Amino acid sequence: xxxxxxxxxxxxxxxxxxxxxxxLLSSRPxxxxxxxxxRMEVTDRTVRRDVARLRDLGYSVDSEAGPWGGYRLRAxxxxxxxxxxxxxxxxxAVGLSEAALGGDQAALSAMLxxxxxxxxxxADRLGxxxxxxxxxxxxxxxxxxxxxxxxxxxxxxxxERARLSYTDGEGRSTVRDVDPYRLVHTGRLWYVVxxxxxxxxxxxxRADRVDRLQPTGHPADLTDPPDPAQLVSRNIxxxxxxxTATIRVPLPPREALRLVPATVGTHRPDGPDATxxxxxxxxxxxxxxxxxxLGTPLRVLAPEAVxxxxxxxxxxxxxxxAGLPAI
Length: 327
Known about the structure:
It contains eleven helices and eleven strands. It has helices spanning 2-27, 33-40, 44-56, 86-101, 105-117, 120-132, 146-158, 228-238, 253-259, 284-293, 304-321, and strands at 61-63, 71-73, 160-167, 173-185, 190-196, 201-206, 210-219, 243-249, 265-269, 275-281, 299-302. The radius of gyration is 25 Å and the shape is globular.
């Protein structure tokens, strides 16, 4: 039994990595060796060896030497199928499931495609493995099974209305018809962006709180969909708080995102060198404390209560330090 497990792990490491590499090469025109090694968390030597194996399997992977060179799938080339035996297919599916649960969007896409073509005997074995796996619960990362994650991804891709059984943050269970649109990963949790049919509103649902998803056979109404990432970011940043402050920082959007993460505030550019951010908080004083902690010039655009709290705290800080002798 030990040698079989060891072989399964070796096959998983090699075959799943090849599929991951192929997915990355297909996702954009060119990758440097260092970029691929970083994304796959392997050495440059492993990347070169895997590229050579893809070529042996018939994939047309071109390369250019030099610091600006890289790898690319040849445009217009016919991509041959990646032939896997039963053990390899099972190992790849397990590896992709684990990567998808960790938030890898490319792995989720590859898992979705692979499970659609798996023979029934392999799919049944994979389902047994899903049930058998035990993951230690952690307060930092609520768990979701790979089967349910795949089911949610399939619903988004199929464009079919579904009946969603859901438990909210207060433990209340509801059943509602939704039009699934996209899955979004925040780096910690998966969210489903869907249109609530009864309310006629676009909503976000935490995937780990979904109890069941049942297709209805009716087409989804995806008219005028929102930006999924922005909707999730806005709901996470401002949803649980009774008060929202709008500030302007003299930073371009990329730097503003490093200062205030997307899970804390909703960003929009104000010219090339400034960003307006909406930040949720419990009360004016709590928001003022957070804004002072940013340690950067900023202007509170609204509301007045937060601006006054920030000025009051700043003046208090100045008064507490005025006239003190230098050390």
